[in-house]
Amino acid sequence: MKINIVNLRDGEHKFDFNEKLENFRYEGITLPSEISVSAVLYKSAGQITLKATIKGAYVLTCDRCLDDYSSDFEIPYFVIYKFEQDEELVKGDEDDTIKYLSPKTVFISLGEDVAEYIILSAPMRHVPPEENEICSKCGRNVNEFFKREETKEDNPVWDKLKSLKK
């Protein structure tokens, strides 16, 4: 997902990418189908503004029943690229939405940023949607996962202490 910025005129430009991220690996997240990135780039003399939307689907493993399920995502993505000659000014800036480019830069690569946004937008809790406390994936009642069978067993070690309590 690279955009050649050298020959772009000032103004608005639209780009669409459809890619299968076969080398994308992250613990608990799989991307079975290709993702689509729709980007609108605004170029001016001193900077480039990029607004994009990342669409696709995760395959996640349910935290309750351990079955795999699919979950669609749509992630907004925004970044400003500024052209900067002085590298000392660039090193001190830690803002994630502003990136600095050399005026000699030919391509902007979106691959690393897209992968980061996908990872950061993945839900922490992997559970499919529920309706009336019924899991949409396995069809089981959600409350069944949290039931604990209580067994009332008296340990003979405590009998002497219990006799003192009476």
Kindly describe this structure.
By secondary structure, the protein is mainly β. The chain has one domain. It has three helices and nine strands, in the order βββββαββαββα. Strands 2-3-4-5-6 form a five-stranded mixed sheet. Strands 1-7 form a two-stranded antiparallel ribbon. Strands 8-9 form a two-stranded antiparallel ribbon. Strand 3 and strand 4 form a beta hairpin. The longest helix has 11 residues. The radius of gyration is 26 Å and the shape is elongated. 9% of the residues are buried.
Summarize the structure.
It contains 3 helices and 9 strands, in the order βββββαββαββα. The protein is mainly beta and 166 residues long. The strands form 3 sheets. It has a 5-stranded mixed beta sheet with strand order 2-3-4-5-6. Strands 1-7 form a two-stranded antiparallel sheet.
Overall mean confidence score, pLDDT: 79
What is the percent of helical residues?
Answer: 10-25%
Q: Tell me the number of strands.
A: 9
Give the amount of beta strand, in percent.
35-45%
What's the end-to-end separation, in Å?
77 Å
The SS-based structural class is mainly beta
Principal-axis shape equals: elongated
Number of domains: 1
Stretches with pLDDT under 50, minimum 5 residues: none
Q: Number of helical segments? A: 3
Read across the widest sheet, the strand sequence of neighbours is 2-3-4-5-6
Order of helices and strands: EEEEEHEEHEEH
Rg, Cα atoms, Å: 26 Å
Q: Main sheet, how many strands, which sense, barrel?
A: 5 strands, mixed
